[in-house]
Amino acid sequence: MLSILRWGGVIALTFYTSLLYRSIPLALAGYVQIVLLVAAGLFLLYRMRTFSGRMHIPVSVAECGHDLTVRFVVENKSFLPCPKFRICLEQGSYFLINRRRKWISGGMALAGENSYDYSIRFQNYGSYRLRLVKIRIYDFTGLFYLNQTVNSCGSVQIFPEIQETGVHLTEAVRNFCGEADVYDDFRPGHDSSELYGFRPFCKGDRIQGIHWKLSARMDELLVKEVSMPKACPVVFLLDYRPAGQRDEKKVNVYLALLAGISFSMMDAGCPHYVSWYSGRMRDVVRVRVDDEESLYLFLGCYLEETFQDTGRNLPEAYREKYRGEYCLHTLLLNESLELRKNRDKIAEFNRKDWKEQLRGLELVL
């Protein structure tokens, strides 16, 4: 639209000059410009009705510092080719709370569907929202254009780099008993609601535990063994409440630390809850982590969070919501990169050599 207004100013200047100098060629040039403007306007209006676009992200997970392919598909329903168009792509990050727009040249679009691949490189961890905002359609001269509003969205997650730390589990953590919906596949326990297996009757076993029907079938006394709930002895609290503008480097370190600590506990065989205050849910939420699938489920949920400082104490809010539950240890990582265990600070990381600090840390649980 701005180019059309500028061209209208050029036409007015041409006619003014022709009147000033009484020049017939300049007046004819002004009429030619009017015809060109009308033809371009009609062409663009027609093109707006026959042109559409969308965005597709083939792989929604990428590594930091590596290229990710974004595919743009534009459909030209007319038999006339579109000589030139441009795409406005908006990129937003949940953690860094920023939005950036970039115009991408698309070239010529022939009749039918046209696909264009574009590579984007992300330099920070987090969850990114990509949105195709506008398509700028040009006329046959390339001088005039109109913007078509589009709302095609996609998301990309850049998971943090996993750095391991030493984790030593005590017998109290290994043999922790509590309520849980997950049961141990290798050890019997005390939860009568879930059956673990059967074994031969031994001296000292209760008669009530004999499975009489199976014993009669097998011609041997067999005793039912109940399951052992795999309770979480550790709660990992993520107290992220940044104030003001967020430092990209510090956010990267924070995300890598929480991912490395949670992975190390999981790898050592310590199931744990990861909990934080959700800005979307406006409440304390938690995710159980005891394998790689649940680890990446937690990371995927956390990277899409929005955060706000509610003034509430996270450990107190957690105990208030999950009252009645008992855990042996509470770990807390805050935005200052401090790691606390049961309110005692055990490590304070810095942005330069946090990898060496994490590798040298021995977490005794």
Walkthrough of the structure:
The structure is a single chain. By secondary structure, this protein is of the alpha+beta class. It is built from 8 helices and 18 strands. The strands form 5 sheets. Strands 14-13-12-15-16-17 form a 6-stranded mixed sheet, sandwiched between helices. The protein has a 5-stranded mixed sheet with strand order 2-8-7-4-5. A 3-stranded antiparallel sheet has the order 1-3-6. About 4% of the residues have low confidence.
Write the layout of secondary structure elements.
Blueprint lengths: L1 H20 L2 H27 E6 L4 E2 L4 E10 L5 E12 L4 E12 L2 E10 L4 E13 L6 E14 L7 E3 L2 H4 L8 E18 L11 H7 L3 E8 L4 E6 L8 H20 L4 E7 L4 E7 L2 H12 L10 H8 L7 E6 L3 E4 L2 E5 L5 H6 L2 E3 L1
Parallel strand pairs: 2-8, 9-18, 12-13, 12-15
Antiparallel strand pairs: 1-3, 3-6, 4-5, 4-7, 7-8, 10-11, 13-14, 15-16, 16-17
